[in-house]
Structures are given as structure tokens and as C-alpha cells.
Amino acid sequence: xxxxxxxxxxxxxxxxxxxxxxxxxxxxxxxxxxxxxxxxxxxxxxxxxxxxxxxxxxxxxxxxxxxxxxxxxxxxxxxxxxxxxxxxxxxxxxxxxxxxxxxxxxxxxxxxxxxxxxxxxxxxxxxxxxxxxxxxxxxxxxxxxxxxxxxxxxxxxxxxxxxxxxxxxxxxxxxxxxxxxxxxxxxxxxxxxxxxxxxxxxxxxxxxxxxxxxxxxxxxxxxxxxxxxxxxxxxxxxxxxxxxxxxxxxxxxxxxxxxxxxxxxxxxxxxxxxxxxxxxxxxxxxxxxxxxxxxxxxxxxxxxxxxxxxxxxxxxxxxxxxxxxxxxxxxxxxxxxxxxxxxxxxxxxxxxxxxxxxxxxxxxxxxxxxxxxxxxxxxxxxxxxxxxxxxxxxxxxxxxxxxxxxxxxxxxxxxxxxxxxxxxxxxxxxxxxxxxxxxxxxxxxxxxxxxxxxxxxxxxxxxxxxxxxxxxxxxxxxxxxxxxxxxxxxxxxxxxxxxxxxxxxxxxxxxxx
Length: 513
Ligand code: MN
Prior knowledge:
Elements: E1 17-27, H1 34-52, E2 59-67, H2 70-82, E3 86-93, H3 103-108, E4 113-117, H4 131-136, H5 139-152, E5 158-161, H6 167-188, E6 190-194, H7 208-215, E7 218-222, H8 224-232, H9 236-249, E8 251-252, H10 263-282, E9 287-289, H11 304-311, E10 315-317, H12 322-334, E11 342-351, E12 358-362, E13 377-380, E14 392-395, E15 401-410, E16 415-425, E17 438-443, H13 447-456, E18 462-466, H14 471-481, E19 484-488, H15 494-509
Parallel strand pairs: 1-2, 1-3, 3-4, 4-5, 6-7, 6-9, 8-13, 9-10, 16-19
Antiparallel strand pairs: 11-12, 11-18, 12-17, 13-14, 15-16, 15-18, 16-17
Helix pairs in contact: 6-12, 6-14, 8-10, 9-10, 10-11, 13-15
The protein binds manganese (II) ion (MN).
Residues 318-319, 346, 363, 462 line the site of manganese (II) ion (MN).
């Protein structure tokens, strides 16, 4: 069952992913006796209840079981694998829990794993501590026993260290929870690809079979005629409703407004949107691509339609870029309920003024208004490539603030994610002759380091830009997926980055993955 694209834009609910669960397991053993186990049970339930109440953790925390034996650990891991609601396991060794009892369960586990290294008490009761207290509160060494086994089994996991009432602990669990929900989405994600790739372009291509094996995503190709039929058959009521939304939600250019001389072009755009929506909904698609080179039967390159579908949570990639379309959908799901936005993006061109180097990012039309500063305007202008009628598009500037760019490439033998922390800046100059939505940013740590590293990594020109998530969320997702992440942040230095690429190459060639 797929998260419907509209689900991710919902806000105001204390749990953005109310249908999703994280199962909290406490590790223990029978050796301590019933009284100690009862205390473990009640304290573990208190921790689960407290974490469940934290808004920063966007899924339900379910206190599943205190584990004391290998059979029950295996059973709960198998149940997690089979559960549609469970997106991951959180484990904490409240007492010592001899780790051989975890081998069968952890070996069977196919859901994301977080090792929470906490303890029930925050302060050490120096004057009262006795052996009973020690028996009850042993995570300092019990979690080391567990971590040894997880490492020996080669389990990818996130380790979070901190007291369970510390907001920072909950925040880091919450970030991982978002990555786990993104992973869950990828397992069900269907991408519709209208037409094929932009001819001769390399980086937007890739191994769709390997992507399905690695990430779960399904990519289905369609002739553009299938979409043209859906557009032609779009119900008049749908088109009318979309036209009203254009008129109400945006500053509509006079020529497109009711009675304007180009109103018919706005109608055509609304009809394209109505057809696209029906097609995607009908096939349970959460992401899609198109290409300006293949629009036979479609009057305009879809502009405003793509922009509004992205705002509703759909992933999109231009020129057949199904990897970016899928990644955009996954990142949008991960960002569900958070302030900020997430968009398809392309490095457009630079301002190389010495000491003030910046990137102008945009695309021909397709930038998501979730990153807009202020109300977008709805305009129509010529598009010099593609050979279709002038397309309607939303024009706006991206809101300033910290953001992350993330992109996925296929190296032939593996996928790599490349990410860069950037700072979006106010767009101070008017761009009267470039009427597209745009963003201006400064890469971190600086333009030269970030750009040289991005190019050395083979980083694509298409990317996902998000102001809702930080690099930790992307890193958590890469770790869950088992995909290399090449991250360029505010502390990165070029020699180390280049070494990292060499080491990653060596690692990928080794047997011990
Ligand atoms: Mn492009």
C-alpha cells in the first residue's frame, strides 16, 4: 500500500506518519528473576510512552516486547518484516542481554534498525547505588554486547547515544524515523516514465532493474500517446476546478486571466494537469518523468502541471530522469509535515564574481512552489526548444535559508548519492528576461571546494533541493539503503573528499560489503 502523494503535505498532526510504527524492543534475560524483569518492563514502557509523545518522532512508538530469548527475538523480527505498519526497529539493552540470543533474529531482520543507547536513570544515585541497581541498569555494558554482535553480523544501523528525555536524542531518532519512512516509501514507489530519455544524455540513464533490487522502486515506461489520450479525455469538471485553483492561488498574468487574450493556453495547461493527475492516480504512481523531445499530442511542455503535482508530493524528473524523480518523491515523504520545501533542481549557471561566487539554479519550467518565497505568478512565455506551443509556468524566487542538494548517479556497478549543504540566498536581482522559478545558493564550505568535489564524484546536474531536511536525514537514508553517500558539508576539505572517493571505490570492490 503506497503513501498517497497528498499524505506527505499534511501538517498540524502531531504524528506526520500516523499509520507508521517504530517497534521499541528492550533486551534483557531471565537470569535476574521476575522482580527485576517486571521493573525492566515498566521502565521500558515508560520510555516508549515518552518517546511516542514527542512530536519530533513522526511515527508511533510501539512498546513491542522485553526480549529474553532467541526464539522470541526471531519471532518479533519476522513479525516486523511482515508488518506493513512497522518501518523499523529500535532496540535498547536495558540490562545485559547475551548477544548470541540475537543472532537468529538480527540475521532475519529486513527492516531498518536503530540502536538506542540510553539508560532509564539520568543521574547516577551515588550514595544509594547497590548491586540490585546495577543488575537493573546495565546498558553501558549491555549495549556494548549488542553492538558487538550487530557489527559482527555486518548490520547497517544507526546508533543514537543519549538519555531518552533529552530532546536531542528524540530529534535524532526522529530524523532516522523519516529516513525509515522514506525507505518504506521506496519499497512501494512506482515511477511513470512518459517517453524515454533525452536523446544522447548519459547521467539521467541508469539500471532500472538494479534500482528495483536495491531500492524497491518500479519504473514503468509509457508512450507519450498514452498521456495524450488521458489529457484528451480529461473531464471538463476537473479542468474547471484546476482553472479556478490557478485563478485563486497565483498572481495570474492578465493575458491568462478570465477574458485575457491567451486564456485558451491556460485552459490547455489545466487540461494537461487534469490528464496527468488522472493517469498518475489511476496507476498509483508517486513520481513521473517527461521529456521536451517527446511531446507528440501534448500542446505544451507540462510546466504549471508538473510544478503543482510536485507541490502535492509527487516526484518528478525532467528529460526522462527517473532516478531524480524517485529520489524527489522519497525526500518529499521523508520531509512530511516539516516546514520548508523540496523541489526538482538543476545547476543552471554561475555568478563567478571573485569572492562572491554563487549558483543560479532552475529548470526550463519545473521547479516546485513548495520552496517559493511569496505567492508565485502564473505566466506564459516562449520556450525556444521542444517545438510546442508556449508553456504556462509558475514564476517565483526560492525562499532563503539553509538547504541540502542531493542527487543519485549510476556508476555502472553501483549507485552513489552526492549531497551538498548549501545556503539559499534572497534573489535580489530581477530576472525580467528569464521568466522561470529560480533559486540562488552558495555551496558549503565554499563554491570551489563543493563544485570541484561534486564534479570529481561525477555528480549529476539534476538534483533534489530540500530546505526541510538536513544532511543527517540523507545520511540515514543512504545507510538504510546501503548506498554510498558522498557528502560535502560546511567542514569538508578537498583532499579528504578526494581520498574518500578513492576509498569508496576500493570499498565497493571489496567482498566485505
Ligand atoms: Mn534538465
